[in-house]
Amino acid sequence: MLKRDKLYINGHWAAPSGNEVFEVINPATEEIIGTVPAGGHGDADAAVRAARNAFDAWSATTPAERAEWLEKIYAQMQSRADEMTELIIDELGMPFKLTKMIQVGLPLATMESYAKLVRTFPFEERVGNSLVVKEAAGVVAAITPWNYPLHQIIAKVAPALAAGCTVVLKPSEVTPLNAFLLADAIDAAGLPAGVLNLVSGSGSLVGERLASHPEVDLISFTGSTRAGKRVAELASAGIKRVALELGGKSPSLILDDADLAEAVKGTVKACYLNSGQTCNAWTRMLVPEKRYEEAAKIAVETAARFTPGDPRNEKTRLGPLVSKRQHERVLEYIRIGVKEGAELLLGGVDVPAGLERGYYVSPTVFGKVKPDMTIAREEIFGPVLSIQTYRSEEEGVALANDTPYGLAAGVWSGDEERALAVARRLRAGQVDINGAEYNNDAPFGGYRQSGYGREMGRYGLEEFLEIKAIQQPQG
Ligand code: NDP
After folding, report:
1. pLDDT by residue (tens digit) across 300-347?
2. Is 104 inside any structural domain?
3. Same domain (yes/no): 328, 240
4. Is ligand 1 within 6 A of the CB of residue 40?
5. Closest residue (by CA) to atom 40 of ligand 1?
């Protein structure tokens, strides 16, 4: 049992204002593995005050000094990498190898990358007789979800600190323990008091308090469209800057000249990553009508190999869903899919064999999914793939774009030029051609209801900067 009973405010571990706690559940065993404080308004206020007080000195540091601080944090994170991996497997249920590589490896790479970037980023430029200065936006509230918990925290904290902002972090109540371990690392690095503060608490209490707090300048939010909308509403009263990284219903558009087997396998794999709990997962596979039967067969064969199991088993590729709530939600979407007439080709709502304990869902594939069906339109956040068909490239592009979201997309074709031309027509923030590898420094963010603002790399740093023009007399 990991009992974290303090919040990290103003450079030390402080007792929360109340006694309530959140229990953290291991989704593979349904056992309670730890508790964290359920902070309240008073805690959020204290954290914002600390961040505000620290802002002037921190924002006045040089980029090179901030780079050194990020390097120190990186070193402390690195020394806790194994512990972090164990913790995230227990909190989230993602299989071991993937947790190590993605949940822990990526945030480390991000921290390192911002330490480098901040040394070379042009914080100033000349425009005629103006000196244009990019400076820290102020006090940042970072509100993060549970699906890639540390990655989403670092995608905000690293560029915010690099920019010279101070931060109040509110992690998800579902997977908060990794944020406490990060605060340990930051404390050990000796970051000045108040530059990074951690308040665990519910979205409705702490999250909303931060979003409406007069001393918060910018809110960086990742999570559901519902909560993001609420955050933006609250922030609008104070004309605060907001960056929203929300959900998606991303298409994988397989063109008629694609290597079908490779494209379908790549799509299934991307759809099921982290048990489908991935904001940019390709959950709609769009295939030419004349190749539907073939594509469906490969999809079922590929999906069937994702046997759900214990995330601690090295061979497991599909762990449980994160929580009972998420489990119920996903099963309900599967029921809706069946009810609305989609063809259930694999999986369904039955408990996977031998997994009576834990929030497991069988890999599920729906065929003949119509564009107006709920499972084609709403984010399910589980291992559920919907196959849709189209007749011409034109129709395929229209179908791919027929979504209220716009976070990601895939295009598959034997002809790179053609794939690129199609990629340009897709209304999404990230488009991968033929399963191209993830680029941790490329801008990440959405169109439409997937939100606004960009994370990662240079674009992610710019989110946390204000722009000032200083005019100087021309001599
Ligand atoms: P939420 O959007 O509710 O949670 C994300 C974060 O926002 C959490 O820290 C949460 O706090 C906080 N939050 C919730 N409500 C508010 C509010 N009113 N004001 C401020 N902060 C708030 O996601 P859920 O956990 O409820 O997941 C539901 C669905 O959202 C998923 O099934 C999935 O479809 C989508 N989702 C998308 C994600 C993405 O990466 N795009 C990530 C997570 C979820 P708390 O600690 O109380 O949860």
Report:
1. 999 999 999 999 998 999 999 999 999 999 999 999 999 999 999 999
2. yes
3. no
4. no
5. 279
